[in-house]
Amino acid sequence: MLALTRDPEAARLPEGVRAARTDELPLDGATALFLNPAVVWQVGSEKLLELAKGSGVRRIVMLSSSSVLSDLDPQENPIGVRHRALEEEVERTGLEWTFVRPGGFAANALQWVDQIKAGDVVYGPYAGAQMALIHEADMGAVSARALLTDDLVGKTPELTGPESLSFADQVRVIGEVIGRPLRYEEIPHEAARERMSGGFVTPEMADSLLRVFAELVDRPQAISPEVERITGRPGRTFAEWVEDHVAAFR
To answer: Looking at domain 103-134+160-249, what is its CATH homologous superfamily?
Structure first.
């Protein structure tokens, strides 16, 4: 099995899965492929999927997004549209597939590292927006199950963490874990849009995310049972995620 990554040496993959750089595409001998859209959008999905099918890959496990389930107008949800389009490309290959659909990543909290190192206040949009953030290790455990067993073929598990927390709550938890009182201060939409835009996040994606955040204010996210059902253990809490990454915030 093969996973394409920008940094093979940093990849932490299950036993039996090998990593290769995105610009090498060495699929000979691989039987299953873990597909991260961030990689595919760099190298081109059509080339990669054709190569996978012609090289004997029989299964693709794609890291998708729960945003594909949004009922927003497609023009207002470019993130969901983009992920669903790639899912459809994978379906058209005729290969076995699983689409792992997580919501908010706990790792998104790393966007606050510089602010936390600089002071005790984190500035951002919609302090009351709630999400059930998922630890990357739980996404990996579900994806490994999809790669290594037939249990999830043709399935689209939606993944969340075990608790719904607002942005303000997340910052508070980070402070508790690192031993410093931290607080979140809400900033206007336009200021947040400017901060978020850049690199992978286009202004249109920033607008889409901000619309979602606005809708999530004071609305606890429903908790999906899929992580525990698939892995046999409860999902990791946000506090556990911070503990696993505490060095980044100090």
So the answer is: NAD(P)-binding Rossmann-like Domain (3.40.50.720)
Residues of the chain with CATH 3.40.50.720: 1-101, 103-134+160-249
Paired tokens of 24: 């090498």
Handedness of CA 221, 223, 226, 232 (dihedral sign): positive
How do 32-35 and 59-63 pair as beta strands? parallel
Rounded Cα–Cα distance for residues 70 and 139 (Å):
20
Report, in angstroms and rounded to the nearest whole number, the Rg of the chain calculated over CA atoms.
19
154-179 pLDDT tens trace: 999 999 999 999 999 999 999 999 99
Q: Percent of the chain, pLDDT > 70?
A: 91
Look at domain 1-101 and name its CATH class: alpha beta
